Amino acid sequence: MWSFNSIKVYAFVGPSGTGKSYRAQYVAGENNISYIIDDGLFIKDNEVIAGNSAKKAVTKIETVKHALFQTPEEKKEIKTAIRKYKPDSIMILGTSDNMVYKIAENLGLPKISKIIYIDEIATEEEMETAKRIRITEGKHVIPVPTFEIKKDFSGYILDPLQIFKSKGLGKDPYVSEKSIIRPTFSYMGNFTISDQVFRQIAEYLAEKTPAIHKIAKMRITKNEEGPDIYMEVIVMYGYNILDSLTEFKDKCKKEIEQLTAMNVNHIEIVARALEFE
Over the stretch 118-136, which tens digit does the pLDDT of each residue have? Predict the structure, then answer.
């Protein structure tokens, strides 16, 4: 019978900025682990199932406290999710042995049975490159796709990073997308978000909206107050066009603002055509 004590706990340890989160899913896959605890998040495969990113914190000290699950509320949320999903194994990411031990202790998990170190996975050159990017650009990778980042995240999503991975000898490779973000506390001036990011968000939402067949055209005009967005869509026959466009417009504005932390100055969406099934 499953219990907290039956969980096999692993840890993936390395100094901050050396590429742990970048390689987390690879290491988990090599050890047949589906659940990861990283920076305040409880992750199953490519989905955030509990927690909030520690990168929301305003200071580095608060980030560390959040990553350790020090408050009763944080502990309760993660422990409730663990009981719900009943994982056989979990991998904890941390910057030191003491950190992963403390996370396991705070969450009431069994003693860590195996620690994997970043220098066993990455070369010295790769780690130095990762550190340089962290220091000069303030970027951090969370091991989940961009659209899985929770909406209350206050950092800045910069761009998705697609990594081709192999499932093993003789098996087809697959793409593992990561979210590159800049934590609030490390914001260092101006940053840019590609127009393609706005389109990807809109297309993602269109796929989830029955009344919208697809995005036909999209134009972004940037200004100091935030981007102006013009969009032409193809609407499915049988839906109220005005209501559908209004609903989709509100959804796009909300998601773009929450996922990019940018204010949408103006958004206009028009129906270009109807799609008949």
Answer: 888 887 887 777 666 555 5
Cα(first)–Cα(last) distance of the chain, in Å?
A: 50
Domain 195-275 has CATH 3.90.550.10: no
* SS3 of the chain: CCCHHHCEEEEEECCCCCCHHHHHHHHHHHCCCCEEEECCEEEECCEEEEECCHHHCCCHHHHHHHHCCCCHHHHHHHHHHHHHHCCCEEEEEECCHHHHHHHHHHCCCCCEEEEEEHHHCCCHHHHHHHHHHHHHHCCEEECCCHHHCCCCCCCEEEEEEEEEEECCCCCCEEEEEEEEEECHHHCCCCCCCCHHHHHHHHHHHHHCCCCEEEEEEEEEECCCCCCEEEEEEEEECCCCHHHHHHHHHHHHHHHHHHHHCCCCCEEEEEEEEEECC
Task: Report yes or no: 220 and 195 within 8 Å, Cβ to Cβ.
Answer: yes
* Residues of each domain in the chain carrying CATH 3.30.70.1350: 195-275
Exposed, middle or buried by CB within 10 Å (0-12, 13-18, 19+), for 240?
exposed
Phi, psi dihedral angles at 68 (to 5 degrees): -85, -5
- 127-177, pLDDT tens digit by residue? 777 666 555 555 555 555 444 444 444 444 445 544 444 445 455 544 454
Count Cβ atoms within 10 A of the Cβ of residue 233 and give its class: 0-12 exposed, 13-18 middle, 19 or more buried: buried
